[in-house]
Specification:
The structure is a homodimer.
Chain A: E1 6-8, H1 10-23, H2 28-43, H3 54-62, E2 73-78, E3 81-85, H4 91-109, E4 111-119, H5 127-133, E5 137-143, E6 163-168, E7 176-181, H6 187-195, E8 205-206, E9 212-213, H7 216-220, E10 224-225, H8 236-252, E11 280-288, H9 295-310, H10 326-338, E12 340-342, H11 344-357
Parallel strand pairs in A: 3-4
Antiparallel strand pairs in A: 1-12, 2-3, 4-11, 5-6, 5-11, 6-7, 8-9, 8-10
């Protein structure tokens, strides 16, 4: 069997995802939004967070682990801030609704800040600040996730890869889009190294004793990923602190399960021994640019920032400095023309969903 | 000459700093606050940001580079957000006032967010969230600083060490205090290695061609510090993105000088070739915990978080997981009893200020 990707149309995949969600009783309006979040990941080249995840959502919905018709509501509020209970809905539905609340608050109070409990995996973190950009707002998003990362000097998984995203609009230039996991590496990269029987770089993982290792099996068999910064010398305490910040704002502040108690996203993962709240947690923020500075002036200043940083003297042997979001913008330009490349394993998963639900398999694009 | 530190009383040093600021026409109330920010750094063991910096402030005030009586004002505002012009005052005065505005806004609107231009070095970043804790708020602070750091794949200094600080209160436990520079290392550590004629760890610096080096001279002579994460493999693009976020929120959004154009803090540093705004920039945030969750419940959850993380299985050969802020709390407990240890070079600087101003040199504690 070849491992070459085949290409599918953006619309075809989005339509398929929408129908899958509707199949499980998700209201059409919500299903469209959820499919849109997945689709954006595919369009921007963040393959791990697009339709490649649909089978996991499918499994979770199949066994009623996720509520298809949640009553998402504000449970505590004070003007620009509030806590939202996602009623165990799809994170792909709860996230956009909570982000909408943050933006609504920002349009009334200059800024809006929403901590969310009782929710699930929310897709790519940058979906949310990109929504804020369409309203001339600076948006933030964070989420805690299933444990994979050891705090510095720890020998067990205690934190997720806990991403932070924020975006800033340019006038002529595309926006600066920051979207980063607070871990030294993504779990997917460790799985790839294992499949290829290759070592991983020193600084990515520890074994089950907390010792630095380059063997991916050491991480997979009871070890952990290191935080951004890796060891003490290079700043691993900083990546740990950033991950802690995300965990606390998303999950401690909202009443969700924090740290090692965050429930797993996939069925094959271990259920935590203790519950300290409801579901996982997200955190969203939105700030009206107009409240700080004329929007056009700000966008011009961002254009200038981008131009100056792009013209940084390049380091020898590199292609020079990128602007955060560059790789995704380049990939988006290509994929909007040529469609979404899917690996055979992902196509098999989608065919499996098609067989089980009767929803026609999407055409190749 | 011995290089052993001598100990001084906290009050003696704070009083000395206050009088030095008053000597240059800083109003007494402002001088007390400015000295308090410096003192907190000394008390918490962040020696690089305490009275060790007083001589630099002294020089800047001596040549009227800093305005001792600034008219600090809100220049644009929308309910929970605003921009403050610091009128080229001491960052140690502008910072606390702008942070106060953020907290006042939070008490009215649930949260408050202040971007500040036309300001100077603001001391330790954690001073500000620690103030917010006294009002049961979650506080944030950021600032841009003079260029020292290369963006990933760059061969020149374009960003400062741009710190981020945030703090969360416990009920029985001391607070979690996060305060981190977004660079792989502090400049002071590279200077120490140079003095000791020792190499620095791989991942801290590049030379003037942007190539990784372990020779501190390579950084000092036209090279740069790397961002948190160091190289591409370990996530240097993430540290660069976080530093960019701090730069934009603090300086692009407020109308201050961003990136490589941030004016230097010390006289011996190069003046940037171009001005794109006024002074450097800060960014402050405050959120009322009550707006999200009952304050006592939140503090209990933080206590639980701290206890669980402290009990993480320790990595082999380490003392186990620390809570962000632990080293500073431990140092504070010692120094509140025994006083502040100052190195001979710092004592010489203070004696010089004493000679030039006629303010009596503080007694040893």
């Amino acid at each position: 069997m070849t491992n070459e990707p085949e290409k599918f149309s953006i619309e075809g995949l989005r339509d398929f995802s929408t129908k899958v969600f509707i199949h499980f009783g998700v209201p059409e309006k919500d299903a469209v939004i959820a499919a849109d979040v997945l689709s954006l990941a595919d369009v921007r080249g963040i393959d791990s967070h697009g339709v490649a995840r649909l089978h996991t959502y499918f499994e979770m919905l199949s066994i009623n682990r996720i509520n298809p018709t949640p009553n998402i509501k504000i449970i505590r509020e004070r003007k620009s801030v509030c806590t939202v209970d996602g009623d165990n809905g799809l994170g792909l539905v709860v996230g956009p609704k909570a982000n909408e609340i943050a933006m609504e608050k920002a349009s009334h109070f200059g800024s809006g800040w929403v901590s969310v409990c009782n929710t699930n995996h929310f897709g790519i973190a940058s979906y949310y600040p990109l929504q804020a950009l369409t309203r001339d707002m600076i948006g933030w998003s964070m989420t805690n996730t299933t444990k994979l990362v050891a705090p510095l000097w720890g020998a067990e998984r205690m934190l997720g890869t806990n991403p932070i995203s924020i975006a800033f609009p340019g006038l002529k230039n595309p926006p600066i889009v920051i979207d980063l996991a607070t871990s030294a590496a993504a779990y997917g990269k460790i799985e790839i190294a294992k499949r290829k029987k290759q070592p991983v770089p020193k600084g990515w993982i520890v074994d089950k004793e907390g010792s630095i290792s380059t063997n991916p099996d050491d991480m997979i068999n009871g070890g952990a990923i290191l935080p951004l910064g890796s060891d003490r010398e290079l700043g691993g305490h900083k990546g740990y602190a950033l991950s802690a910040m995300v965990d606390i704002l998303s999950a401690v502040l909202s009443g969700a399960n924090w740290g090692p108690f965050a429930p797993p996203f996939a069925l094959r993962q271990e259920i935590p021994s203790r519950s300290v709240g409801k579901g996982i947690g997200h955190f969203f923020g939105a700030m009206e640019i107009e409240g700080f500075m004329d929007v056009n002036e700000f966008k011009k200043r961002i254009d200038d920032w981008i131009d100056v940083f792009r013209n940084t003297k390049p380091a020898k042997g590199t292609t020079g400095v990128l602007i955060p979001g560059d790789p995704e913008h380049q990939e988006e330009a290509i994929r909007r023309k040529t469609g979404i490349p899917l690996l055979p394993a992902v196509i098999d998963d989608l065919r499996d969903i098609s067989r089980q639900t009767g929803i026609p398999f999407p055409n190749q694009g």
